[in-house]
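Sorry, can you check?
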Amino acid sequence: MLSRRTFFTHSAAGLATVSLGGGLVSTLSMPAIAKGLDSLTIYGPPAGPSIALAHLVKSNALKDHVGKTKFKVWRTPSQLRAGVLSGDMTVTGTPSYVAANLFNRGVDVRMASVVTWGLLYLISSEGKVASLKDLKGKTILMPFKNDMPDLVMQAMARKAGLKIGRDFTLRYTGTPQQAMKMLIAGKASMAVLPEPAATGAQMLGIKNGVKLTHALDLQKEWGRIIGGRSQIPQAGMMVSGKLVKERPELVDAFNKAMVRSGKWTRNNPASAAELGAIYMGMKAPIIERSIPYCNIDVKSGRASKSELERFFKVLKSVSPAIIGGRLPGSRFYI
């Protein structure tokens, strides 16, 4: 039974906590999928990786498999929760650890691909820093305690031999936007922010005479401290198990189209920003400048398995509940 269990969802626009309501997982079946699939709505968060989804739909990349494809942004965690559990969202962008949590709770979902390999940056008014060890004695703003960015920071600090509260302090804020305002008001000098909020803070700072810098790339620091590649498989595409079973050719076509749309987003930042501005509620110049920092590189769930498992193990070492207590089985990765 699913009691009031909590898992965390993160988008570049902000962070929020998502709770699964009560009820038997077995009753949360996905809706029947039409034989000809007249239409398909693809969902994504109000974040940079969703630009690739919007492009996929605009280019009609699935025309051989779907009559009409639509793209919609989910704006709140409750929308994502309700959509996935009701079966309305059979294809949706989501933080990778949320997909793992749902799978481990018995919801019939799969990890189709990783879209972004990390969106997290230390933004500072004090210039660049070389490593976490340079943060000794500093106070750093962190949106949402015990959400993924916080857990990543905790894990890296522990591995680096640093103790939060002794070597440096994390000051928690309600949202990335709150942290941005505090930076610009001079109430703090450092914050961990996701993209495009990080670039947004930098550009807003320029308007207010405050110079903010991408002081530390947390993806690179992750690779240096944790090991492996300098990337965090932060978010990707989750699809229903029913869609995988009944329309494998569609899922395969979708994954291939996502690769093409991901490349288009990276290679055409100005056009991608104009498209993203329609859905993300953010001005195109901010989106354009943030795209190089979004690390968009679409790879299938199966091809990303080793990096996802490394990521999940680290999160689990700090907070097992965030992924549902264990690593997802091989069936999770497609």
User: Anything to note?
Assistant: The chain is about 40% helix and 20% strand. The chain has two domains: 5-118+232-332, 120-226.
